[in-house]
């Protein structure tokens, strides 16, 4: 079935996937009262802290202070973006998602995503089976053995081999549903100028590149010595396709993700064989970039899985150059990046085979913090006693990096402040400068950076951050508890209390949603509001309100509404009174307005005094 909009599809999937079944497919659930409990996978849970509510179709962990619906659970459990979670759950429920705007895509055509994924999975299997069975692959298998890669890792990473034939894969595909146009769309073959097609990876060792759901989306191909010539590139990677962008993928992340969660960090290497050898030696949290340096899009992907990244670089000049290109990005975004430079002439594969796992772990422990590494690089470049102008340039370079931290992060954490203080002390000692002077210069650079940032923000559309802390005032909490408790009171609440009365950002967001639903003549219910909540913090807020509302089910709802409106009236009057007093004090009114305001004050005073007189005879 095809649904007309993304919202319709989302709701269809939400209703089709039972959260008890979903959570139960990952965790062992135990019945408790009207719900279920399980050990929370996101903290060291000694007793079941994760609660699953089948009535609300939500989950919540009281220790981690997280919760949400089926989408939130899938996103957190599988480290997926929302669209990826939607696709995964739709596939689980057998639901076909609505197509993106544009011409309808025919099943089996080059533009059909399912066909693209199926073609890549087929190719990965064909390459792997060819490596295992073809007579011409014996030398390739020997090459892997010489590199130290065992059969278990060969199969675990589904390493393959493409025959040294211009049209081998094209011929293999003739017995399948995959047309040459499909294979070309996913980057497996290319078009000849005079017509026909050629295999992109002919005569190469094949490394499948998978997404976080372990689906092949691209390939890396290493040329083998016996099939190389002067024009052969050492590595050929898939081109950019609808499924693959090299700046958004990391090789072996799908295999490493569990180890990353267990160890709390991820090790980023430079080569496919480095990663495979690392896993063979038990370094199972290792991944690699796919033919490009770490960039901002990688940063977004990494943050879904860990807060600490260890970047391992080959011990050559090119490795050092690549380091400088990524350090500032990580420092500015306050990501805990550690940098490890291997001994000259060695890569991780060589080092592990020569020294073993224990030596590797000891070496990893020496990895420098990104800011420390940046300072070390600058110090190495300028030498011990640089000329004054060289030293001044080096100091400016280091302070410019430090200046980005606060601007990028919004506010500086205590750990960042400590690192900054240590860095300033080190710069002062190294270049014989006063630390106070460096701090003043840093403030100047930071103000300049802030102005540039604000100028660019003024030109950009305003984006509301819905990831704000879900904190309501007691009065706001009471409003939404009544909304969820008694549908008959929604209209009176919205009629008597304006949106401007909401002071916290979560309340403003939620009250606006209530207005939208009510104006569209839709019920303002927990389910409807959850359907509009796009962030886990929003969903957690709604779950907390609904639970609190349930505890007050037997209260007098009408009296609570009366108290709410009276509280708003008094609060509003007090705000207006304070504003009037401020205008009088500051002289913001003309003579006529001032006289009217003073007259109003005296009238109110008389009424209060009159009301306070005794009426006893």
UniProtKB/TrEMBL annotation:
Q: Where are the zinc fingers (CHC2-type)?
A: 40-64
Q: Please list the cofactors this protein needs.
A: Zn(2+)
One matching Pfam family: Zn_ribbon_DnaG
Q: Give yes or no: UniProt keyword Signal.
A: no
CDD domains associated with the record: TOPRIM_DnaG_primases (cd03364)
List the record's Gene Ontology CC terms alphabetically: cytoplasm; DNA-directed RNA polymerase complex; primosome complex
User: What residues does the Toprim domain cover?
Assistant: 264-345
Q: What PROSITE patterns does this protein map onto?
A: TOPRIM (PS50880)
Protein name, as recorded: DNA primase
């Amino acid at each position: 079935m095809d649904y007309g909009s993304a919202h319709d599809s989302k709701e269809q999937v939400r209703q089709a996937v039972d959260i008890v079944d979903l959570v139960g497919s990952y965790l062992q659930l135990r019945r408790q009262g009207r719900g279920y409990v399980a050990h929370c996978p996101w903290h060291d849970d000694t007793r079941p802290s994760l609660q699953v509510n089948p009535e609300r179709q939500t989950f919540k962990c009281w220790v981690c202070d997280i919760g949400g619906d089926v989408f939130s659970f899938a996103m957190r459990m599988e480290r997926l973006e929302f669209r990826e979670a939607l696709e995964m759950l739709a596939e689980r429920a057998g639901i076909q998602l609505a197509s993106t705007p544009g011409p309808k895509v025919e099943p089996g055509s080059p533009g059909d995503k399912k066909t693209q994924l199926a073609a890549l999975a087929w190719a990965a299997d064909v390459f792997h089976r060819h490596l295992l069975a073809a007579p011409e692959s014996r030398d390739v298998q020997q090459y892997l053995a010489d590199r130290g890669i065992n059969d278990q890792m060969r199969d675990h990473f589904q390493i393959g081999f493409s025959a040294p034939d211009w049209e081998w894969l094209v011929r293999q595909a003739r017995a399948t549903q995959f047309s040459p146009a499909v294979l070309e769309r996913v980057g497996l073959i290319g078009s000849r100028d005079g017509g026909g097609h050629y295999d992109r990876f002919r005569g190469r060792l094949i490394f499948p590149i998978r997404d976080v759901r372990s689906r092949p989306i691209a390939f890396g191909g290493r040329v083998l010595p016996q099939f190389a010539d002067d024009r052969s590139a050492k590595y050929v990677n898939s081109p950019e396709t609808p499924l693959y962008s090299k700046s958004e993928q990391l090789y072996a992340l799908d295999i490493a993700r569990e180890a990353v969660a267990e160890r709390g960090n991820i090790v980023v290497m430079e080569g496919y064989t480095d990663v495979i050898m690392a896993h063979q030696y038990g370094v199972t949290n290792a991944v690699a970039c796919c033919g490009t340096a770490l960039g901002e899009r990688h940063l977004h992907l990494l943050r879904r899985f860990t807060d600490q990244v260890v970047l391992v670089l080959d011990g050559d000049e090119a490795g050092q150059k690549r380091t400088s290109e990524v350090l500032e990005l990580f420092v500015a975004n306050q990501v805990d990046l550690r940098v490890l430079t291997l001994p000259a002439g060695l890569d991780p594969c060589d080092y592990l085979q020569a020294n073993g796992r224990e030596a590797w772990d000891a070496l990893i422990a020496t990895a420098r913090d990104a800011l420390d590494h940046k300072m070390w690089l600058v110090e190495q470049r300028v030498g011990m006693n640089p000329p004054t102008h060289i030293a001044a340039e080096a100091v400016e370079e280091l302070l410019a990096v430090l200046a980005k931290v606060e601007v990028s992060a919004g506010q500086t954490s205590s750990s960042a402040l400590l690192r900054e203080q240590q860095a300033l002390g080190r710069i002062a000692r190294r270049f014989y400068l006063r630390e106070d002077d460096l701090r003043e210069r840093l403030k100047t650079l930071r103000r300049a950076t802030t102005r540039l940032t604000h100028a660019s923000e003024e030109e950009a559309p305003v984006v509301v951050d819905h990831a704000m802390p879900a904190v309501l005032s007691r009065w706001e909490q009471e409003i939404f508890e009544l909304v969820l408790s008694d549908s008959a009171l929604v209209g009176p609440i919205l009629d008597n209390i304006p949106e401007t009365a909401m002071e916290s950002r979560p309340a403003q967001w939620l009250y606006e949603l209530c207005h939208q639903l009510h104006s569209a003549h839709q019920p303002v219910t927990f389910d409807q509001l959850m359907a509009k909540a796009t962030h886990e913090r929003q969903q957690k807020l709604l779950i907390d309100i609904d639970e609190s509302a349930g505890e007050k089910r037997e209260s007098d709802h009408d009296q609570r509404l009366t108290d709410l409106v009276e509280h708003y009236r008094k609060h509003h009057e007090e705000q207006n009174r304070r504003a009037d007093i401020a205008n009088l004090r500051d002289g913001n009114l003309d003579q006529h307005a001032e006289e009217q305001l003073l007259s109003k004050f005296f009238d109110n005073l008389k009424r209060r005094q009159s009301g306070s007189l005794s009426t006893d005879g």
